[in-house]
Write a structure and sequence with these properties.
The protein is mainly α. The chain has one domain. The protein contains 6 helices and no strands. Helix 2 packs across helix 3. The longest helix has 13 residues. The chain is globular and about 50 Å long. The relative contact order is 0.14. The model has no long low-confidence stretch (mean pLDDT 89).
């Protein structure tokens, strides 16, 4: 996804702030779109820019690009690496069904 409009450039700049990026990511899941975590993460990284996310996260651009284009679900540990720059991590729980 290329950033070619002024909106995209402004959003990409605002996403450099980890707190703003976290709220953007959470909003994609909780908002009207109701995206799944992985889809929200991919959308946020694309809007932010792969290079910019690589600088923020320390994850190589090649690995990020692979994750964005891969159809498989990453391991929890890998997902946590991608969530760390946003101050987030995964949490899995079970509850008994009555």
């Amino acid at each position: 996804m290329f950033r070619n409009s002024s909106y995209d450039r402004i959003l990409a700049k605002e996403l450099q702030d980890p707190e703003f990026a976290k709220e953007f990511l959470m909003g994609l899941m909780e908002g009207e779109e109701g995206l799944l975590l992985l889809d929200s993460l991919k959308h946020t990284i694309r809007r932010m820019g792969i290079k910019e996310f690589a600088e923020m996260s320390g994850i190589p651009e090649k690995s990020i690009s692979r994750m964005l284009h891969c159809e498989t679900i990453p391991k929890i540990e890998t997902l946590d690496e991608y969530l760390a720059p946003f101050g987030l991590r995964t949490k899995i729980g079970l509850e008994e069904v009555a």
